[in-house]
Amino acid sequence: MDKFDEEVTTRKHLLPSSDKVLPAGYTHLVVILHDEKTNDIPDDLKRVPIIVHPRDSVSKDYIANNIKSNMKSVGEDKWVQKHPPHRGVGVIVSAGPYLDYVKLKKFIHEHPGCKVLTVKHALPGLMKNGIVPWGCIVLDPRPITQKSTHNIVRKDLFNNIDKSTNFFVASMTDPSVTAYLKEQDVRLWGWHAFTDSLRNEEDQGAQIQNQQVTLNEDLGIPKGATLITGGTCAAMRAIGMMHTMGFRDLHLFGFDCCREEPTKEEMTETTGDLEGGETPKPKYIQVNVKEASYWTTGELLAMAQDCEKVFSDPGLDGVLCFHGENTMVADLWNIKAEQDNRIKFKGQYDG
Description:
The chain is an alpha/beta fold.
């Protein structure tokens, strides 16, 4: 028994998990090596997934005031509603640094009439490359004069816009953004991004039953209004929006969720609110997908998590197509494709 205890102590490996068990706690896996020729387990088994728990960038009261203001600023007949499914081609452009404009232009040329929906950070690059998007989705509850998560003053992102572009502004968007776009006389539309902040206070945090929620009546959102679900950023909500608009042929460009290696100066940057009691953490994170290593941030990692969920959504099978290579999300898409091929092969093999 003493010999067994010694082997367990020296030749065991704990693989942590976030899988919950009832009534409480988590389950983990212990690997004990019996083969004396084997001294360690594969590195990929020892990797621990980084899980990001996103939160709203401003308070619920701030969001509520934004919604109340935008409900008055956007016309009653200018809110996105659900449309029947169709086979129109939709292109969603995120602001990944490895966006290939040549391939994007080629795709647009080969699919005349396709609708290009971009996020605001990708808008300047598209305009510079002669691509006038059909729409721009805006989801930002913070003032237009402040810097974005990409360290760009938000107003500067709208320096070069085309009045043929439809601007889809979330009701929680800061009124300063809405007012500025109205001053530019753009085609302005509103939409409601579902978050827990929209629900009655007593329902917030509770599980949603039968896809039905009770909204806070003080917000002024009419009963039965279309709510766009999705993820933590505008690019992910764009998928839900275009699906709500009836698109069943969607193509994703610029969904990278990674960047070049940070400089020494950038490596000193941190996130966290000291006044709020948070411990500062490095802004830039290095993560691995299979054997590839990527640099990312908390916000981008949250988006990558959203992509994993979307890629695994059976309701989007045959609807989504990812374009891009040599990025973190490209690897996630390829992993899902490999899993799908194995499942399909097994199904064919089983008859």
